[in-house]
Every structure is written in C-alpha cells, then in structure tokens.
Amino acid sequence: MVNYEESIKKPFTDFGKLVIGIILSIIPIVNWIAQGFIIESSGIGRSKPSKNMPEWKNVGDYLIKGLLSHVIIFIYLLPAILILSATVGYFIGSLISSLSGVLPSGFVSSLLTGRITGDEVNLLLSQNWMLILPALLRSLPLILIGLFLVLVGVYLSPMAVLNYLKNKRFSSAFDLNLVFHKSFTSQYFLAWIIAGMIMIVIRSALFFIPVIGSAIAYFISGLIAYSLFGQVFREIK
Hints:
The protein is mainly alpha-helical. 74% of the residues lie in helices and 0% in strands. The protein starts with a helix and ends with a helix.
C-alpha cells in the first residue's frame, strides 16, 4: 500500500540536502543533477528503499540519470510535439488562406522580414476575427489530438523513467508492455493525480517568488512525486 505521508515528508528529512537540490535546480544543465537526484529518491534500483533522501554523492551519476530521464520524457512527448507543430503550420496556412482577401500585398514577406510590427498584426486580426474562426475550427481536431498525446506522454513517462532506473538500461524505458502494465492501474492513476495536485498547490504558493520559487516547487514536488511513483512501481508486480 502506498504511504502518502512518507512521500510528502521525504523532501524535509534533511534540510541541507533540500537546499543543495533547490540551488542546483536553478541552474540550466546543472539542474539535470537535481533531476537525477529526484528520480534516485524513488528508491528504485536499490536493494532497500529508504524513507530519507539519498546522499549527494556520485554527482556524475545523477547528471547522467537526469539527462537520460529528460530524453526519455522528450521521446514520450515527441508524437505530441510533432502533431502540435504540424497543427501550427496547418493553422497558419489556413489563416493566410482565410485572410487572403484582406491581407495587404506582400504582407507575408513583410511579416517574415520584420517590416510589419506585432501591433499591426494584432490590429489586422482584431478587425477580421470572424475570418479566423474557420481556420481555428479546421485545426481544432489536430489540437485536441495533440493535447491528448501530451497527456498520455506525461502520464506514461514516469513509469518509463523508473523502469530505466531499475534495469540501468536506456532501452528499458521503452518496454511498452511493462510501462502500460504499471501505468494503467488504479494505484498509479491515484498517485499521479495526487502528485499533480501537490505540484499545482506548491507552484501556486510560490509562483510570486522570482526564480527561486519555481526551483523550490520543481525540486520539492519532484521528490514527492517520484517517491510516490517509486512505491507504486514496486507494489505493482
């Protein structure tokens, strides 16, 4: 059974480790180390999981694990990225077609070369917003498919990352039979929802603090989430 209290308390079991993680989370690329520490806190791959955070040792190992976890997440989100990128292109093409009768001569080339300002574009769109609706409606199915694939990627990727961590093989992250088996369960779904709610609460409470607020939210919510996911991963056989 998942111990939610244990996971929520984990980031606060050692204030020094927490501060180090928050500081590392601020710095681009270096924050891969913090990400590696976060997934290591899941306890997956260890003979005996702990209620406490791991030690800040083997920083190079954390860096590699953090980098590869980001790559895994990116690959799981890649279908959504491709669909949404194609949707943007399709929408722009449809929009230009819809506005072809009102666009000034040479508008597109002027826009690409920066001779037309953003204010001029906004004015043109606000004056012809009824012509935008057909382009938006034509793009809507692709937008919905893209957003659905984002949700699927975000949902599946934690189990994929933990399977990589367990087996110490990058390819294990793409063992879809196992990832689906562990992901499409009530235990994981509940843990994922609770982790998401915790992240929203923490980010909402700290959003007004420049830079450091997002780093605090990222590190603490990540530790809690992967501690929960690690418990679920071990529980589901």
